[in-house]
Amino acid sequence: MKKLNIYFTAGIPELEDTAEIIQLIQKSGADMIEIGMPYSDPVADGPVIQKAHELALKNGMTIEKLFSQLKSIKNEITIPLILMGYINPVLSFGFEKFCKECSESGVSGLIIPDLPPIEFEKNYQKILEKYHLNFTFLITPETSDKRILYLDSLSSGFLYAVSSSSTTGNTNSDLKNEDYFSRIASLGLKNPVMIGFGIKTKQDFENVTEKADGGIIGTAFVDILLNHRDWKNKAIDFIHSMKA
Asked: Which of 40, 80, 145, 200 has its CA 20 to 30 A from that of 2?
């Protein structure tokens, strides 16, 4: 069975909805959850997730608040929780303090796309290992085989294969990029490969997981949280449709 990873931004649609959304995603059958930490300049994200970041910050979401929410449901969550965000807020919080809070909040791994691998190796890898946290790097269709192998060697948990070199939610994402997906599959990577960016339907999910271990859905799910009054039932139905 291919793994389904659902992303959403913490602090939307309302500040206190985060814990309920995590529980809803788990109960609906997703295999892991990626929680976006709101940031004022989310350059890798498209308009929908940028809007989510803005709303979450307006609602008052902070890293401290997120950890408090995660701790409140720590004992009820059995699937992996991954925090995704940008390095500046994490450094402002204090990197080791952040990792310690992650380990005490039930978080199993991090994705920080703007943390260079050289910096990771030099300054942060040992801290992550100390707190038993996985770290995932991203690759794109332009990433060379040599660099994919290097990033795979540094990653743990899974390797995030971006479907195209674009922002999240891009409608032009190439979900049938056979050459790219076949190339990844042929490299004998140590980590499972999860493909993300542009997955909106069950067919999209099936397309990307033909040669990968799973798919990551973000924009389509966040859109439900932002634009549907009955978001709870819509979100459940959406996840069920992906897992059917």
From this structure: 145
Is the pLDDT score of 226 beyond 50?
Answer: yes
101 labelled catalytic: no
Q: Which is the catalytic residue, given 34, 101, 204, 223?
A: 34
| Burial status of residue 71 (CB atoms within 10 A of its CB: 0-12, 13-18, 19 or more) | middle
Write out pLDDT tens, residues 53-94. Answer: 999 999 999 999 999 999 999 999 999 999 999 999 999 999
CA distances from 128 to 108, 133, 182, 205, 220 (A): 10, 5, 31, 31, 31
Give the list of residues 6+ apart from residue 84 with CB closer than 8 angstroms, or none.
7, 34, 35, 36, 37, 110, 111, 112, 113
Q: What angle do CA 25, 114, 204 make, to 5 degrees?
A: 40
Active site residue 34: yes
